[in-house]
Design brief:
homodimer; 295 residues; alpha/beta; Arc Repressor Mutant, subunit A; D-Maltodextrin-Binding Protein, domain 2; 3 domains; five-stranded mixed beta sheet; four-stranded mixed beta sheet; 36% helix; rod-shaped; DNA-binding
Chain lengths: 295, 295
DNA sequence: TAAAAATACTCCATAGGTATTTTAT
DNA sequence: ATAAAATACCTATGGAGTATTTTTA
């Protein structure tokens, strides 16, 4: 009954005053203003039903009850605060991807997030469409292309041109570029987990021929290199995967490919949302900076 | 940093769920609704940055971090709650009076207050104008008549007719009543601490003659009994102090005497305000009940 | 007179509630 | 189909701030 409504900030405030014996300094120490701390102490006294501090404008002193409380709290509060700090083992957020992990800004995102939240970010590569999300092996994932949005919270980070990867010694190897309209008529190498070329969604008559079906990016790249078919991928990923046997051709008229950050709608990691919004912020700043650089 | 904003109600909620392994029951146990508890758990997880409970609509289970937290909290929280309960020694409010403590309703007030707040009320008689308030020997006081309102928080509980106490074998002993206009012309016995007859406030020409100046009620009553002068007092107090040598006479035209409850404006007992408002409530109910009885 | 606590107010974050939806067996 | 947790929305307590007043050595 009487304890009702007492909260930790009241106790932190009291302990601070009990240590400083001075409201203004005690308030500063815990980043409060003096009037707020004064009121919190009064509330604590009202709710406990006991005066804890004898005070006037010149002096602050503990009452008997206050001294007893300080003694108890100086033991209990630090332990409690400690218990609320998850161990380094526990404070981990696993960021999944299956291919095409972008350069530069994710590193800044991860270190910024770790600094701001104290939660470590572990990078996890899984060769699945959801990069470990569905099996609970990742908490958040970076995924190129279309994502089933039913059970997932999805945020689009950016969009990129797609390019075609072709074997240098294939018929297409000599070409300088392709047009999107040609694509359905060509043989394709497909990464089943990519989310890039979801051919099922294409009009049935125009569906490209799948000449090679792979289960991860590296297999797929080699399939392209060995001339089994062309592959589609985002421009920046192509840049990071130069291959002696592969040429990357611009595809005029091709739709842009989105990069998504994805997390489970329910039962997910409590900091997933924070990472996603921070990712948007970081990307906005990156875009702004690059804009400035261009000017 | 991460601990910011975690409060006791979050932890109480978590502990309740960890014990029940069932949100709805856990919510009932701590007198919350299930959605509120759900949100509080989510907030706790967000602020700690760690998932504590794996849950869906059918199952609730502790994560590793949750199990550790439960272990810590099941030790710390009960001790903390205990520390917030003042001991019986400390949870005391001293109610001062110097004379004329009323019958019936104060007893109900005191027991009601003790039951509702867990704070014991000790009755303290001190023969001073403020009945121990000024020396810090009482936290709240019941005082008849005028009270210096500068440093005190004052509430008027009721007003009563005043009557005159006269020695039966004095000249006034045979009278059936007095008129207020006669009072200045008569000899008075005065209790210096009473607050009743503050003669200093009377127009200087009409100030009654102080034939006997006493320092407490009992001396004063005997002074009246021995015929040193008349005394003024509230009707109900007269009723409780029948004296073989004293007659009580109505005084027509006399102003009513207020009964006040008084507490220091600053530095007072944190529950003083609660007692005062409860006193007003109790008296309102008493008045209502007596009103009904009359009808 | 000056330092410090208390008051008076404004604002807003969030705890708490009710009604409804989603989910898993 | 049903039990149970999650979501959506609303209300209002009270915590935090700024400006001012009061107090006491």
């Amino acid at each position: 009954m009487s304890v009702m409504g007492i909260e930790l900030h009241h106790l932190r405030g009291f302990l601070s005053v009990a240590e400083e014996m001075h409201f203004t300094r005690a308030a500063e120490k815990i980043h409060l203003t003096q009037p707020t701390l004064s009121r919190n102490i009064r509330k604590l006294e009202e709710r406990m039903g006991v005066r804890l501090l004898d005070r006037n404008t010149r002096f602050v002193a503990l009452t008997a009850a206050g001294a007893r409380l300080q003694q108890e709290l100086s033991f209990l509060l630090p332990r409690l605060e400690e218990a609320l700090h998850p161990s380094a083992e526990e404070a981990v957020l696993r960021l999944g991807f299956s291919w095409g992990f972008p350069a530069h800004w994710p590193q800044r995102l991860m270190s910024g997030f770790e600094e701001e939240t104290g939660t470590r970010v572990d990078l996890v590569r899984r060769d699945e469409k959801l990069a470990g999300l569905s099996r609970g092996e990742a908490d958040v994932a970076l995924l190129w292309g279309a994502v089933d949005t039913r059970d997932m919270h999805v945020v689009t980070l950016l969009e990129e041109r797609q390019v075609a990867a072709v074997a240098k010694d294939s018929e297409l190897g000599a070409r300088r570029g392709l047009h999107w309209a040609e694509v359905p008529g060509l043989d394709h190498a497909v990464n089943a987990h990519s989310g890039m070329a979801d051919f099922a969604q294409w009009p049935s008559g125009e569906r490209p021929n799948v000449a090679a079906l792979c289960t991860n990016f590296d297999e797929w790249l080699e399939a392209v290199a060995s001339g089994r078919g062309l592959g589609l991928l985002p421009e920046s990923v192509a840049e990071r995967h130069a291959h002696p046997s592969i040429s990357f051709l611009p595809v005029t008229g091709a739709p842009a490919v989105p990069l998504h950050m994805v997390a489970p709608r329910q039962g997910g990691h409590p900091m997933a949302g924070k990472l996603m919004s921070m990712a948007l912020r970081v990307l906005a700043r990156t875009a702004a900076t690059e804009g400035e650089r261009r000017c």
